[in-house]
Amino acid sequence: MNKGRFGPLVGAIDEGTSSARFLVFAAETAEVLTFHQVSIKNICEKEGWVEQDPKEVLKAVYECIEKTVDNMRRLDIDPSDIVAIGITNQRETTIVWDNTTGEPLYNAIVWSDIRNIDTVDKMLSKLRDKNAEYFKPLCGLPISTYFSALKLRWLMDNVPEVKQAIDSKKCYFGTMDSWLIWNLTGGVSNGLHVTDVTNASRTMLMNIKTLNWEPALYKFFEIPTHILPAIRSSSEIYGFITEGPLQNIPISGCLGDQQSALVGQMCLKQGQAKNTYGTGCFLLYNTGTAMVISQHGLLTTIGYRMGPNAPIYYALEGSVAVGGVSIRWLRDNLQILSDASDSEKVAKKASKTGEVYFVPAFSGLYAPYWRKDARSVICGLTEETTKNHLVKAALEAVCFQTTDIIEAMNKDCGGAPLTKLLVDGGMAANNYLMQLQADLSGVPVSS
Description:
Structural class: alpha/beta
Shape: globular
Largest sheet: 6 strands, mixed
Strand content: 15-25%
Radius of gyration: 22 Å
Oligomer: single chain
Number of helices: 13
Number of strands: 20
Helix content: 25-40%
Low-confidence stretches: none
Mean pLDDT: 91
């Protein structure tokens, strides 16, 4: 295979909560050669609602690909040197679309959306003792607003167009990876309706032992199987891009964003862990081929499966709903920061007098508490309180929640405490935050 001066190249679509990116790597060195990024708008029409326009997301991805390819040409890099494309995406975010027209039947409901609280209560009422962890042995997850099945159930119950499309067998459901792959591989012209095991493990519909859609789960939520994508491994050729500058290039990898960070940080051995400090915070601990069901409020999830016949690697996960969101809230709503990157220097200016504590529960509390009814609290305010104290408290809140998760993981993993925490995400550039995390948790932090 004759390739240019960088050898074979790999492209990566990174579709996150706040932006989409397309990056090109040199396969042999993992060097990032070029990329383009486009912001994605959240639509928040009601309290607790967070939506995105699936067509805007798709347009952003196409724009990122086109701009990155233009960058390659300016850098005298041949786009035909790209041999494969991978996808990583925000998980749990739920999309339903008409498979005959390609049109979304509703906006994407983002993972942090909590409109389905009543749906959760309705599902819990069907169970003895309203036990939210009843299905954890099957899917590794508690019944929560967080997961796709509960979002899909809300759509089925509240959006007539969705019910009609399902009844006429014109509806497809998927997380963001499924929406992108279907469109990139042809859409209404025989696009592939698939997902990978990591994303499927976040729907609350997949059996994490068999890696198949679980009858006990989809029957409980009353979700028809004909709307569900086929489940594939994280590393195989799913199909080929059908149009644009990357036409005929295979899509050959797919991982939910937090699992891709686990792999990207090379946490490929049992006992290794990473924490991503982004919109939320997500700590994943590789438990190897052993499936550990948490007794302390954590999730059991698929870490990765690198091929249809490869072993399944599992992870324990602690999910924090509010990470960088709290800094954005201080910037946009309270307007006490001009830029999120200012949080480090502002926090350092906080005087030692007066302790302010911030519990950022905009979407309730996730691991290890799972309190959908929790709401944010700021306490300890005095006449001496300044904006510096509020910013410091917001950063401390991220570390306190992460430390709670580390303690839960140490308990679940049988006395083998975490010895190093690898970190990534936008907030990982905040040295004050990282040092505070290491001090509070007693675990060395490494980027």
